[in-house]
Task: inverse folding
RNA sequence: CGGGGCGUGGCGCAGUCAGGUAGCGCACCUGCUUUGGGAGCAGGGUGUCGGAGGUUCAAAUCCUCUCGCCCCGACCA
């Protein structure tokens, strides 16, 4: 690439509408331009980065036994109705109709399409396993797109789907994909963690997210300081030790005038927040008897709503805390004094932390009154219990005995799910097993945000002057800078090196512009290409050129005759055995 | 959807409170000089001030509506 002929519109100032560093730098470096909220143009340099990321993904998916194909972006509503998701996917699904009034959507994901394809073609267990993927533009009408490529509405995703004959096969495929994902993100030089995750809207039995650790991440990653436990905060559990066990005298009701909050109650009754039982009335938003649910949790802990949604089988978008009049009707008392003792006609779910409590305190379902000396199981039935607790930094690790949990921010760049038979059953996608019996496919699905991965790399690798691309996904390996293109000697040397470097498989951005050296060096730093080879009169006369590392700004003198070898070696070394 | 903020040459912004000929920096174009860390001098304006309506002798500025964009929130008892 000759800089003078390439469309690289760099900017001196940060764009006014960008907040995070990857967004600012990708715009400034002339890699992306916004078209609408969450919708971008990918300019030549940005598109090269995307291409590099895609290529690494392809290579490792192939190694993991997957095959690339391509499905349509526009999908008919019927398939979504069949899977049941047309009704539940919500406003994120961009819907439209064609000239005949038939409903379509722009695919946010392709479980329906692939399941339809495979059920139509695969008849026998002998044709399994099958692992298919594509790299394609997706559209999700996000509530709030933001941060450039980190959360776009239109975005490029690698989505893969596997079909196995049984659980064991599906599990093996899942492991192969998990390994492939580790290789993919390691090759890109990212600092990441694979964490246990909630499977959310896609559904299924279990899943892992691949999180790039960065302060601007939108997710909280909970991990153990000593063992390898790591989970999304939506899913994370922790060891919560109960307060000291003690004898519980007979239940007593006491006046607590004007005392509402957990802290106030604990102080007023001379006890600690971890002996309180908070009772929260949730509204699932559905009609009928099961609409309201009372949730019990220890006073010093907080309900994890994602876990609650999963436990209740509720719709996460509809679940809210109940309105005050509803609370008063259900508990028969004032808001702020709810408690499980004598609570009737409503489903009660307790967090595990409540089961261990002795000599506890709860609201009495009357204004300004609480119960003391409450023993779960004795004073109220301890029916349904579940893990509903939000893990916190400093909590004990649930897996090892000694570790403490820490919380870091992470960017979700990949997500793998074991789907089981959720879609194959809903869509009656079956094959014949060796006994000639119909069986539903056991599925998995595997996503990677291509653009988001590029953005995450910048979040993790940048400095005050610009981007620091790892060699593997940089838009070029080296910038060949003609320091003064008016000098004939410089021009001739640079032109010769441009040819020779490319012959050696090095990707060169030849800065042949009639700009001053300072401008070129500044742009080199902004663009973040790992190496710069400086060709100036000084070096040409001396017979040695300067090779500059973007990462630390260091410069080494290389004899003219060795320059091509040296650059080629450095590139090969940085790619770690994977070709350019 | 709720709250807040912002829309003025390509980009970043001032001007809006207090109505009176649309500005600054960068970029861009021409010429000369300069050429190893964002050059200097001289000349050049490329704008329906997001849009529509209203008030006024007069609107970027005041009022109403509308569109777009950004941020926070949409469980925190």
Result:
């Amino acid at each position: 690439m000759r800089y003078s002929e390439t469309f690289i519109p760099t900017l001196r100032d940060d764009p006014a509408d960008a907040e995070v560093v990857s967004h600012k730098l990708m715009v400034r470096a002339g890699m992306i331009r916004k078209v609408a909220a969450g919708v971008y143009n990918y300019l030549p340099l940005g598109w090269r980065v995307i291409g590099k990321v895609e290529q690494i993904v392809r290579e490792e998916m192939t190694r993991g036994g997957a095959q690339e194909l391509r499905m349509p972006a526009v999908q008919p509503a019927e398939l979504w109705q069949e899977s049941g998701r047309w009704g539940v996917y919500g406003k994120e699904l961009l819907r439209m109709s064609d000239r005949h009034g038939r409903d379509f959507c722009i695919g946010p994901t392709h479980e329906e399409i692939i399941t339809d394809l495979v059920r139509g073609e695969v008849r026998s267990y002998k044709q399994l396993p099958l692992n298919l993927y594509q790299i394609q533009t997706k559209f999700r009408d996000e509530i709030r797109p933001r941060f450039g490529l980190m959360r776009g509405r239109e975005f490029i995703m690698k989505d893969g789907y596997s079909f196995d004959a049984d659980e064991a096969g599906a599990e093996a495929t899942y492991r192969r994909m998990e390994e492939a994902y580790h290789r993919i993100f390691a090759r890109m030089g990212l600092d990441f963690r694979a964490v246990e995750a909630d499977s959310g809207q896609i559904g299924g039995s279990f899943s892992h997210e691949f999180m790039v650790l960065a302060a601007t991440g939108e997710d909280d990653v909970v991990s153990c300081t000593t063992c390898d436990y790591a989970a999304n905060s939506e899913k994370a559990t922790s060891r919560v030790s109960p307060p000291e066990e003690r004898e519980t005298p007979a239940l007593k009701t006491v006046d607590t005038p004007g005392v509402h909050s957990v802290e106030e109650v604990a102080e007023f009754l001379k006890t600690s927040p971890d002996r309180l039982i908070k009772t929260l009335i949730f509204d699932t938003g559905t009609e009928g008897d099961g609409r309201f649910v009372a949730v019990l949790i220890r006073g010093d802990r907080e309900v994890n709503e994602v876990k609650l949604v999963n436990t209740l089988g509720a719709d996460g978008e509809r679940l809210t805390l109940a309105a005050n009049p509803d609370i008063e009707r259900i508990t028969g008392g004032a808001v702020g004094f709810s408690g499980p003792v004598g609570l009737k006609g409503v489903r009660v779910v307790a967090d595990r932390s409540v089961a261990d409590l002795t000599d506890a305190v709860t609201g009495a379902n009357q204004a300004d009154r609480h119960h003391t000396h409450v023993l779960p199981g004795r004073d109220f039935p301890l029916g349904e219990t579940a893990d509903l607790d939000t893990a916190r930094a400093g909590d004990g690790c649930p897996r090892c005995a000694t570790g403490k949990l820490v919380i870091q921010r992470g960017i979700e760049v990949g997500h793998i799910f074991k789907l089981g038979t959720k879609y194959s059953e809903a869509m009656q996608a079956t094959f014949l097993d060796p006994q000639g019996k119909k069986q539903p496919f056991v599925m998995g699905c595997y996503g990677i945000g291509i653009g988001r991965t590029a953005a995450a790399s910048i979040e993790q690798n940048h400095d005050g002057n610009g981007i620091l691309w790892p060699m593997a996904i940089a838009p070029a390996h080296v910038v060949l800078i003609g320091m003064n293109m008016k000098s004939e000697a410089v021009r001739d040397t640079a032109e010769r090196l441009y040819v020779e470097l490319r012959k050696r498989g090095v990707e060169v951005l030849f800065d042949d512009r009639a700009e001053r050296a300072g401008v070129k060096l500044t742009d080199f730093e902004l663009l973040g290409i790992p190496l710069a080879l400086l060709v100036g009169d000084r070096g040409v006369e001396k017979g040695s050129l300067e090779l500059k590392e973007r990462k630390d700004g260091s410069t080494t003198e290389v004899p003219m005759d060795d320059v091509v070898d040296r650059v080629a070696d450095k590139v090969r070394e940085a790619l770690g055995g994977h070709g350019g």
